[in-house]
Amino acid sequence: MLLPSPIAVTGASGFIGSWIVKQLLDEGIEVHATVRDRNSTAKVEHLHELAQGAPGKLELFEADLLQPAGFARAFAGCKVVMHVASPFRIQHVKNPQAELIEPALQGTRNVLAAVNATESVERVVLTSSVAAIHSDAMDHQPQALNESLWNESASLKYQPYAYSKTLAEREAWKIAESQPRWRLVTINPSFVVGPSLSRRVDATSTDLMLQFVDGRAKNGVPDLRLGIVDVRDVAQAHLLAASLGGANGRHIVSNEVMSFPGIAVQLRAIFGDRYPIPRAALPKLLMYVVGPFIDFPWRFTRRNVGVDLAIDNAKSRSALGLAYRPLAQTLKDCVEQMERLGLLGARQ
C-alpha cells in the first residue's frame, strides 16, 4: 500500500482512530495523532504501546474540536488528514446541541479550516456514518441504502446523533467544493464492533456488545436490524481511501445486516452457554410499553423494530478493494477482548 508520510489522524485515541493509528504505524508511516490531553494516561497509553516496536513513528498533538487552534501544528507537512474525531452517543443524551451537534459540526469546520491553511494537504479522509444516509430502517425503502442518499428524517429532537453526522458531512462537502487544492473522501460505516485497542469500555458499541453477554439482555432483545462492520475493516478502508489515487466521494463500509436476535444466535454458536446470551426476541408491543423508559420513543419502535433493512456496500468492495472479515470472527474477537479485560466475570 502506497501511503504518504506523515499522515494526521484526529480523534486518534478513540475506538476507530486507534485502529487507524495501529495500521498506519504497521505500514511504517509517521502519524501525527491529535488527542485532547497528551498527559491523560488512561486515554493515550495504548497509543504509545502501539508505537513500541512498530516501523512507523507516533507524535501526539493536543487539539480540541471546539477550538480552532491546535490542528495546524499537527497537519504541518502532511499530505493526508484523516478526520475521525466526533462524539458517538445514541442514548442518554441530555443536551444534543452541546454534546453532539457542536462538536461534530464546529469540529469539522475547525479541522477543515486548518486543512485550508496547510498547503501540504492534498486529501482529507472523513469518518462519516451510514447515519448520514438514514435514521430509521424505513427510510428510503424499498431502496437499499447507497451513497447517493442522505438522511432527511433526523433532527435535533429525533435521532440527534444521526443529525450531527448528517450536518457535519454536508458541511465537509460544502467546504471541500469551495476550494481546488485538496480532495475529500468519506467513509460511512454502519455499526462498528470488534476488539478495542484500549482498556476503556465507555464506547457505545462496546457497551452494546457487552449487554449481549453480561446478563443485562438475558430476558430478550428487540428485533432491530442494523448493518455491522469490523472496526479493523473500517480502519483499513481509511488507509485505502488515502492510498488509492482514484478514491473519491462517499463509501458505505458495512458487512452484513443482522438483527439483534441474529447476533445472539451467532454468539451462542461461538460461546455456547458460557454467558447469559439472550434467547428471545422482545415483542414489538412490549417495546412500545417499555421503550420510552430506555430512550426508544414510539416513533423509533414503529419505524425500526421488525423492519427489514438493506445496505449496498458494492462501492467499498469495487472502488476501495475492501475485503470484509467474517462477522462470526468479529463477534468472537470482540467478546474475547472483553474476557481479557475482565469485564464479564465482574458483571455476571
SSE layout:
Blueprint: E1 7-10, H1 15-26, E2 30-35, H2 41-51, E3 57-62, H3 71-75, E4 80-83, H4 96-116, E5 123-127, H5 160-176, E6 183-189, E7 191-193, H6 204-213, E8 221-222, E9 225-230, H7 231-243, E10 249-253, E11 256-259, H8 260-271, E12 281-282, H9 284-290, H10 298-304, H11 314-318, H12 327-340, H13 343-347
Parallel strand pairs: 1-2, 1-4, 2-3, 4-5, 5-6, 6-10, 7-9, 8-12
Antiparallel strand pairs: 9-11
Helix pairs in contact: 1-2, 1-7, 4-5, 6-12
Structure report:
The protein is α/β, with parallel strands linked by helices. The protein has a domain of 229 residues: Rossmann fold (3-Layer(aba) Sandwich), CATH 3.40.50.720. It is 40% helix and 16% strand. It is built from 13 helices and twelve strands. The strands form three sheets. It has a seven-stranded parallel beta sheet, with helices on both faces. A three-stranded mixed beta sheet has the order 7-9-11. β2, α2 and β3 form a beta-alpha-beta unit. α1 packs parallel to α2, α4 runs parallel beside α5 and α6 packs across α12. The mean pLDDT is 93.
